[in-house]
Design a protein that fits this description.
This protein has 117 residues and is mostly helical. The protein has seven helices and two strands. 62% of the residues lie in helices and 7% in strands. The chain has a two-stranded antiparallel ribbon with strand order 1-2. The longest helix is centred in the last third of the chain and has 13 residues. The radius of gyration is 17 Å and the shape is elongated. It starts with a helix and ends with a helix.
Length: 117
């Protein structure tokens, strides 16, 4: 299944915020989704979403191996770039922007150069 299709389906199943939680937890990885009966309380999906939503994901993707996109690559890149620019214009330090965005300091400096000169 194509990555954008996976993200779209997850958004429909569990919403934008929970899709973000999934991608933050396992973005960039290939994950196996068990059948709902095999879902254990310590499974990463249960720990990330709670049992009910994890069961929903398992019901849709059971026995599939999903290649999840990186968290930042799942439709938030432009928003992150805007946040870096906005925080830079507010005079925030690179370290504060790193904490707020999860991007590397080198990336913050590169984006500042690209957008702010």
């Amino acid at each position: 299944m194509a990555m954008n299709k996976i993200v779209h389906t997850l958004r429909e199943l569990v919403g934008e915020a929970n899709t973000r939680k999934i991608l933050d937890a396992r973005g960039g990885q290939e994950v196996y989704i068990p059948i709902p009966d095999n879902l254990t309380p310590d499974h990463w999906l249960v720990e990330t979403l709670g049992r009910e939503l994890a069961m929903t994901v398992c019901g849709r993707f059971q026995k599939e191996r999903l290649s999840l996109p990186m968290g930042h690559a799942a439709g938030t890149r432009n928003a992150l770039h805007r946040k870096v620019v906005d925080m830079s214009l507010e005079g925030r330090s690179v370290n504060l922007i790193v904490e707020a965005t999860g991007l590397h300091a080198r990336t913050i400096r590169r984006l500042r150069t690209r957008y702010l000169g």
